[in-house]
Amino acid sequence: MDVIAPELMRRFDIPGPRYTSYPTADRFKVEPDAASLVDALRVRASGPALPMAIYIHIPFCDSVCYYCACNKVITKDHSKATDYLTYLEKEIDLVSRQLAGPQGERSTVSQLHLGGGSPTFLTDDELAGLVTRLRNRFQIQENAECSIEIDPRTVDSQRLAHLRQLGFNRVSFGVQDFDTQVQVAVHRVQPFEMVKSLMEQARALKFDSINMDLIYGLPHQTPISFARTLDQISELRPDRIALYAYAHLPARFKPQRRIDVLMLPGANLKLQMLDLAIARLLEEGYEYIGMDHFALPNDELAVVKREGRLQRNFQGYHTNAGSDLLGFGVSAISQVGRAYSQNVKTLIEYYAALDDSHLPVDRGLTLSDDDDLRREVIMSLMCQGAASIPALEKKYGIVFSEYFDEALIRLSEFESFGLVSCDKEEIKVSKAGWFFVRAIAMAFDKYLWQHADHQRFSKVL
Ligand code: SF4
């Protein structure tokens, strides 16, 4: 039986943002300079000492995966990381100085994530140096979530043990697919046995949570081949699974031009693979968190989802309530209070800004009252699958049905298919509606309807 009714897939699998923020990053303006981030940091420093999250972007990779849409630098020259780390430390120093208390107290950090690119492009010593610098500049809580993305081809048991020693307690392995033909076609060959051995070592090292990323829609994938990958995933049983759809956009992402378009599965096959994967993961006892995320019932992500405390930021779903996020490195995004800011994307620009002792901010946005309200509605729907109307009316001094009259009309189509219900008390996403939560949230996105430009996003499934 289909997990998602084919009619719903046809009607509601539309292009739309992933809502890792609202307004989405493509709405950030070029005009803001670093000043708005500095102001937000100062406001934060003068307020209550709430813990924050840190994201560090390490852009380097040894070789290119053809499906890649990340901001990365492909190089075999590992000395490039040395320069980058020097500048990264400069940026960390500049920001932490703005946040220091009157006696130079360090800000508290409850979540640290290293992503890329490939953070494991760095040597063990370089990673240790980076973590030490962070610990010198920030107070990383003892029970902080410290996670790192791992390219399985770049680590062995010793490196994993070193990461554990440095304090990382969560790892995420990029798997995508175990089929050899698919791996060759996307230029990322990493045999099942390699990943299995790392997984066993990570378990032995007692990492709290192990995530694996999968992608459906890659060249040569079929429902049969993908079912075999899912069998292997069931054998490994990671705590979390992120299941992404491959979006073929070769005009935007150069490496994708190396993918043979004739070998890509069509839209129907893609949806079959999605349906197959969802059914299989639910059968294996995973809970559906939202969008592309699944977790075992005892994983913290599933626990916070059940308790209505799920959060969403630029790294996707997470467990850290209401914290500001500092992003360091090229293209990293920060969210401090009402200010969003994104760093420049190239190494040249990044180094030049820091040589001048400027924060390397490229673009950003300070939320208006309307943005703030819509952000709350959209994030409540994306994370809790519900929005309380009396609470929003009280907090923002609005009459919900008047303020959001157009959005409520847009929701009526979802309502008629049982994907969402709306009354005077709340908007509630149904179990079937969870698969289309992005499309439901879009009803409240002012920018999307002003510009009628949602076609440029990937589809919601
Ligand atoms: S998918 Fe990851 S490892 Fe592959 S090129 Fe992109 S950033 Fe690098």
How would you explain this protein's 3D organization?
This protein is of the alpha/beta class and 461 residues long. The chain is built from 17 helices and 19 strands. The strands form five sheets. Strands 9-10-8-7-6-5-4-1-13 form a nine-stranded mixed β-sheet, sandwiched between helices. A three-stranded antiparallel β-sheet has the order 14-15-16, with helices on one face. A three-stranded antiparallel β-sheet has the order 17-19-18. Helix 4 packs parallel to helix 5 (157-166) and helix 8 runs parallel beside helix 9 (267-283). The protein starts with 5 loop residues before the first helix and ends in a 10-residue tail after the last helix. The model has no long low-confidence stretch (mean pLDDT 92). The structure holds iron/sulfur cluster. Residues 61, 64-65, 68, 70, 72, 116-118, 151, 174 line the site of iron/sulfur cluster.
Q: How many independent structural domains? A: 3
Round the Cα radius of gyration to an integer and report it.
22 Å
Tell me the distance between the termini: 18 Å
Please list the strands of the largest sheet in the order they lie side by side. Answer: 9-10-8-7-6-5-4-1-13
> Helix amount, in percent?
25-40%
Low-confidence stretches: none
The portion of residues forming beta strands comes to 15-25%
The rough form would be described as globular
Label the structural class: alpha/beta
Biggest sheet descriptor: 9 strands, mixed
What ligand species are in this complex? iron/sulfur cluster
The number of E-state strands comes to 19
Mean pLDDT over all positions: 92
